[in-house]
Specification:
alpha+beta; 5-stranded mixed β-sheet; 3-stranded antiparallel β-sheet; 18 strands; about 25% strand; elongated
């Protein structure tokens, strides 16, 4: 099958037939030949990259992630790319050792450089930046929430695999390492004796209540809390690692130390108020808005002020009812697929203002695709009494 008998004179004949002169061409002629084992290598794929993506991949280790039912993604250390197969009408030949004109010498006698075609492709993969697919992470963490079980130090992984190490999550979740790390923070996941878990909600509030009650009994100011003191005084109440991580979720450093050289922290008011609101709203289908606002303000630690702006993506207010009501509507329960997401939203409410809907689609947005662009594409805008509303593009 291989053409091995070509000589420099053969190329000169072809040049003449093409009505060209040797002065117009480089002195090296590269021939394409097919080896006897051509086509046996079926493990090769082509990926088209732009300059920026190529630089990212060259600087980073890459891995392709996805279960059998998933569309594959390629992940670097901090980015995720969707892999999409595309067809081309041009034949793409793989030629190791092929040189481009600027790599060839201009002088010398004509010589032949025999190149073997190792493969031919009619399809290739395109890389497109995409959002990490974190719904699976949420589902995995929800399989076995931690609820304060004793002897966790000696408890081994359950047979059904319902607890996951970091490597387990990295293998199963279609996200880069940096994106996975951020998602674990955003979901308030805890690293407990080698596994990553979320806390069962009532237990989470119980742990936080230990901290806030300690602050109250010690008469500490809300912006002068020593983490060392909290861990020391609550050491026998809950596992130290749980108290420590809960503390980190709801308090931030003031960059100030007390007289004992201990770093001081203050409560993150918006996160604390949001937690208390969830405690009130989670068990109730609907809540009279004015009653809720009153009870909510009374329930939070003294010195904190509640505001409905703290509940974006957690609750919805219906001002068309009499009396007005508020209901629990967490964004993390929404479908990940964008079409399903909008169907779900417009089934729940026919019309949304920008302030209402933005919290439920902002995770789909990015630097180049803002929330407004997503709404323009997937929703219909209308104006009523000077207020802009978004509804389903097609009648439902």
């Amino acid at each position: 099958m291989a053409c091995i008998n070509r000589k420099p004179e053969d190329s000169k004949i072809l040049i003449n037939h093409a009505k060209l002169t040797e002065d117009e061409l480089k002195s090296i002629t590269q021939t394409l030949e097919f080896p006897h084992n051509f086509g046996e290598d079926t493990n090769q794929i082509l990926i088209e990259l732009d300059e920026k993506v190529l630089e990212t991949i060259q600087e980073d280790q890459v891995v392709i992630r996805g279960d059998e039912e998933d569309m594959a993604v390629l992940c670097t250390r901090n980015k995720t790319f969707e892999l999409r197969e595309a067809e081309t009408s041009n034949t793409l030949a793989i030629l190791p050792g092929l040189k481009f004109p600027d790599e060839l010498p201009d002088e010398g006698e004509r010589v032949l450089n025999h190149l073997e075609v190792t493969n031919i492709h009619f399809t290739y993969f395109e890389l497109r930046p995409c959002k990490p697919r974190l719904k699976k992470l949420q589902e995995l963490l929800a399989e076995q929430p931690y609820s304060g079980t004793t002897d966790m130090e000696t408890e081994e992984r359950t047979e059904d695999g319902r607890k996951y190490t970091y490597d387990d999550l990295l293998e199963k979740v279609q996200a880069s390492e940096d994106e996975l790390n951020q998602a674990l923070v955003d979901m308030e996941a805890y690293h407990i004796y080698g596994f990553w878990q979320i806390l069962e909600f009532d237990y989470k509030f119980k742990v936080f209540s230990h901290i806030i009650n300690l602050v109250d009994t010690q008469s500490w100011a809300l912006d002068c809390i020593s983490k060392d003191a909290v861990l020391r005084l609550l050491n026998n109440v809950e596992p130290r690692t749980i108290i420590s991580q809960c503390f980190d979720f709801y308090l931030s450093s003031t960059n100030v130390e007390n007289d004992n050289g201990e770093a001081l922290y203050n409560f993150i008011d918006n996160k604390v108020c949001r937690l208390y609101a969830e405690v009130l709203l989670k068990p109730a289908e609907k809540f009279n808005l004015q009653e809720f606002l009153s009870i909510w303000q009374q329930s939070v630690p003294e010195g904190m002020t509640t505001n409905l702006s703290q509940l974006g993506g957690l609750a919805l207010v219906d001002r068309l009812c009499t009396p007005e009501v508020i209901c629990y509507f967490p964004a993390y329960d929404l479908p990940e697929d964008i079409q399903e997401r909008f169907s779900f939203l417009f089934d729940a409410r026919e019309k949304w203002t920008m302030d209402e809907i933005k919290y439920y689609v902002e995770d789909l947005a990015g630097d180049k695709v803002p929330v407004s662009a997503i709404l323009t594409k997937y929703a219909r805008a209308s104006n009523q009494n000077g207020i802009k509303y978004f509804s389903a593009k097609h009648s439902r």
